[in-house]
Amino acid sequence: MRHQLVRLHRWFGVATALFLFVAGLTGAIIAWDHELDAALNPSFFKARTAGPALSGLELARRVEAADARIQVTYLPLTAESGHTLQMMVLPRTNPATREPYSLDFNQVAVDPATGEIQGRREWGAFSLARINLIPFIYKLHYTLHLPVTGGIDVGVWLMGIVGMVWLLDSVIALCLSFPSVKAWRKSFAFRFGRGGHALTFDLHRSGGVWIWGLLTIVAMTSVSMNLAAPVVRPIVSLFSTLTPNPVNNPEILRAPQPGDGVLSREQVVQLAEEAGKTQNIKMPPGGLYYAEFMHAYGVGFYETGNDHGEIGLGNPWMYWDAATGKLLGMQIPGKGTAGDIFMQVQFPLHSGRILGVGGRILISAVGIAVAVLSATGLLIWLKKLNARRRSAQKTQSAPVTRDAGRTPARPHREIAPE
Q1: Superkingdom of this entry's organism (predicted)?
Q2: Strand-strand pairing, 70-76 and 285-291
Q3: CB 64 within 8 A of CB 71
Q4: Could you give the CA distance from residue 365 to residue 214 in angstroms, rounded to a whole number?
Q5: Dihedral sign, CA of 363, 364, 369, 370?
Q6: What angle do CA 164, 166, 172 make, to 5 degrees?
Q7: Long-range contacts formed by 335-339: CB under 8 A, 24+ apart
Q8: Is the dihedral of CA 182, 184, 185, 187 positive or negative?
Q9: What is the rounded (10 degree) CA torsion for 137, 142, 147, 153?
Q10: Own/partner pairs for 68-76, CB < 8 Å, 24+ apart?
């Protein structure tokens, strides 16, 4: 049985090592995406003009009025003091061609005092330019920048499958790390004095044992983050009812009707303020998202600058039909069924934000550890593979001897690598 587990661990590890190496390093970086992005691109984050800031709603109106090609899809409702207000935008339809306008950006940084655009960029572009570097790394972390093919986000699916293999392999690795009750201490030890292969082996085995629980959490949440709708939610729903909302259950959306209008942003914010009071949400509406393809608005409740959710289970979100103003669903952290709360906790766990700054530091360290475990695993495999090949070559090149009166000795069979 142990021999079969060794083979599984070897091939699971080889198959996922490169993906996990990239995911580990990028995860360690994007735990601090906002801070690093601001440090690299001060002109995109720091407002040029001192003075009272306009509301996010007024800034969005001015941006759209200045450029008829664009439609603001996401915006914070207030800007951080001294910072630009960053909006996500999409192209409108060109009435002459009935095709979307061609844009080379999807995010703008707006001076909150004047409404002028300070900077533009395509968030997630395949580019190592300084303005694009952190968004590039963020998207690399969960998609590898692979394309969407036939409506399937190949990168998201691939990294989700890698997460499932990693989760299974973590269980196998723990079993292999403790070959006997008497030798359990060795599984926690590091032979720093030996160096070389001995230390490489200990970094891989003992390093994985020390942080096994954290690795398992990151593996599980990586599956939940990438494959929530097709895999995780159906499994969770077997054990607990899940409350639908437009994000996880588009079937509750009403098909757009001819002549449907779209509520103004101001109307939706007013609906959100009233609903927030009804639900006893302490934070004000902090950000507004319009999803034209869903014909719905989403409003997040958070203090200025806390769009990610700095600690706990994240921010409340509520959703409305863009034409009728009907409440379509909500996600209130800590409320709902056991299944709802399980799904709510996935991003805070994966990002470390459930524990605030300390959790982000921890998740950065785990990301580096994942990269080290992947690299040492490959080194161990390559060393053993080379050893098996040398052994096979020696066996094949050994002279064939014949004893008088006996049939010729058969040469040894080639030893196939495991």
Answers
A1: Bacteria
A2: antiparallel
A3: yes
A4: 11
A5: positive
A6: 110
A7: 336/243, 337/240, 337/241, 337/242, 337/243, 338/239, 338/240, 339/236, 339/237, 339/239, 339/240, 339/241, 339/242
A8: positive
A9: -160
A10: 68/92, 69/94, 69/101, 69/103, 70/101, 70/103, 70/108, 71/290, 71/292, 72/290, 73/289, 73/290, 73/291, 73/292, 74/287, 74/288, 74/289, 74/290, 75/287, 75/288, 76/286, 76/287, 76/304, 76/307
* Cβ contact 141:79 at 8 Å: no
Q: How many CB atoms sit inside 10 A of residue 26's CB?
A: 20
Q: Which residues of the chain have pLDDT under 70?
A: 398-418
First to last CA, the chain: 15
Q: Which H, E and C letters describe 359-406, residue by residue?
A: HHHHHHHHHHHHHHHHHHHHHHHHHHHHHHHHHHHHHHHCCCCCCCCC
From residue 400, alpha-carbon distances to 121, 356, 408 in Å are 70, 69, 8
* Three-state SS at 284: coil
Sequence-ordered alpha helix ranges (H) in 115-244: 133-143, 154-177, 196-210, 212-226, 233-236
Please state, in angstroms and rounded to a whole number, the distance separating the CA atoms of residues 154 and 135: 19
| CB-based contact 374:381 (threshold 8 Å) | no
Note the pTM of the prediction, 2 decimals. 0.89
- At 405, which amino acid appears? G
CA distance 107 to 283: 25
Q: What is the model's pLDDT at position 101? A: 95
Report pLDDT for 107: 98
pLDDT at position 403 is 52
For residue 165, the 8-state DSSP code is H
pLDDT of residue 407: 45
The C-alpha atoms of residue 184 and residue 55 are separated, in whole angstroms, by 61
- Interatomic CA distance for residues 96 and 137, integer angstroms: 37
75 SS3 class = strand
How many Cβ atoms are within 10 Å of 169's Cβ, its own excluded?
22
Determine the pLDDT at residue 399. 66
* C-alpha 268 chain-centroid distance: 29
Q: Residue 418 corresponds to which tokens in the numbers above?
A: 């495991």
Taken in order 212, 214, 215, 216, the sign of the CA dihedral is: positive
SS3 307: coil
Question: Any idea which residue has 């096994």 for tokens?
Answer: 212
Cβ 399 vs Cβ 411: under 8 Å:
no
Looking at residue 281, its pLDDT comes to: 94
